[in-house]
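Weekly modeling sync, notes
Attendees: S.R. (lead), two postdocs, one rotation student

Agenda item 3: backlog of single-chain predictions. S.R. asked that every request posted to the team notebook include the full sequence so nobody has to chase files. The rotation student volunteered to paste the first one in as an example of the format we agreed on. Action items at the bottom.

Example entry:
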Amino acid sequence: MPRHPVRTLRFGVQMLVDLGTGMEPFSRDVSEVVHQVRRTAGHEHTEVVYFDHCPVRGVGQGPRWTWGEYLPPAPGTRVFILSDLGMGGPRLDPRRSTRAEWERLVALLAHAQCTAVAFVPFPRKRWPLWATKLLPLAPWDRQTTAGWIAAHLD
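Predicted structure, as returned to the notebook:
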């Protein structure tokens, strides 16, 4: 009998939350999204980890000086990335994340058998083609619903 994978949060969810300059205009919204995910998936099944521009540069839950290397969660964990993927902030900011950094993160997650989805605070027309091919993206706006996500993301 053929089997099809079923979406589940039984392994929990890890939220990777970008605190980089491109996300500063959305800081209050970020807090609300974190709250809503914890409420939906359960506080005990939600790990929130913060990063600056890209997780491969280091992550943590407390002050930045305590952050360390990003280690993927247990296999089967869904990874929810809340980031601008380097699209926001000042164009000439040398700290902006790069395509290569995001490719490295997605490779780490794939090796750990984790699936990821990125929520970006910009409309589709601003998404770089490389990002749409790298991982599932969802627009982070008022029109995005759980039904939209279920219909458009694997």
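Discussion: group reviewed the output briefly. Strands lie at 13-18, 46-51, 59-60, 78-82, 115-120, 137-139.
Action items: rotation student to repeat for the remaining queue; S.R. to check formatting next week.
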